[in-house]
Amino acid sequence: MAGNDRKKVLFIDRDGVIVRERQVDTYESIEYIPHVFEALREISRKTDYLLVMVSNQDGVGTVSFSYEGFAGPAERIFSTLKGEGIVFDDINIDLSFPEDNLPTRKPGTGMIEGYRSDLYDMDKSFMIGDRLTDMMLAKNMGCRGFLLDSDGIEVPEELSGTVALHTSSWLDIADYLIPSSSLKHREAEVIRNTKETEIKLSVDIDGTGDGHIVSGIGFFDHMLDQIVRHSRFDIDGVVKGDLQVDEHHSVEDTALALGEAVRKALGEKRGIERYGYEVLMMDDVVATCSLDFSGRPEFIWDVEFTMEYIGQFPSELVKHFFRSFSSSAECNLYLSATRAGNNHHTAEALFKAFARAMRKAVRRIPGESRVSSTKGVL
Ligand SMILES: [Mg+2]
Q1: What spacing in Å lies between the alpha carbon of 18 and ligand 1's midpoint?
Q2: Is 15 a known active-site residue?
Q3: Domain around 49
């Protein structure tokens, strides 16, 4: 799997990191670490790390630490975090004793061994813990660690390369992980060269609607301008196609490149609306677009052009553009337009409706870090 597609993980200890280190077996014993909500909320909103809990809770199930005593406060901790928009993708809690010598006991990697696969990028992942065993676990996983510690723990030489940050404040960890205070733009560039076309195209989904795609096909460029303006994506592109043959390859490949760029820019699609919808009127035409960045291509077309050409542009290529976009962006795309309208208006209304539906679908939901699917993946 390509490096950019591999998921980054924040492995997070519980006691000493989320809540004070003590036996948490009553609701009164829950005491949160300062700034944990603020920091984790920002990290959830502004980065694409998976949040994975890794905690040892020895003694649960014994007379002095009943399972019931452990479970209620544990659920309360997670529900409180969830209320602040902080949702763990995976929770691993080991109940063994040190003397059991189980591989799930930190710094053993038993609980999180599955993350040592090609799907995850350990070079860019971190363990957040308050003990050297947490940092040892980071080393064993091949990732690095944030040592959250107010007691001045001395980091041994063997772990100096593992500890990326030794701090007493969650805010330092948030600052480390979030490169700038503004939201990182979702951008992608696609270069697509075939025997029929050469295309270079860049997309910034969090733009302001600047840029042009120049294809050399006047009407098509006019339609692409509608996408830029109404999506508010910044899009720049140059398409050099075999126009001596006809417009077909240029239109198709531009759509494929644009769809690929949008898909790449969206990444894991965490925290986005996912669905977009627009009903748009343009003079004598009402166009409708419904769109779902579902990860699956599906295309439904309920449009009829009454003329074979719009100016010099073959009407059938409007449909072909959107179908091609749907396949490479991996989105469900439905388009319709009222019949008997002016053909230029019909095409333009469709492009505008499509762009505005996209704008809604890619919108980030404030405070939401999850993927908008019960499957957890889009
Ligand atoms: Mg701890």
Answers
A1: 9
A2: yes
A3: 3-177
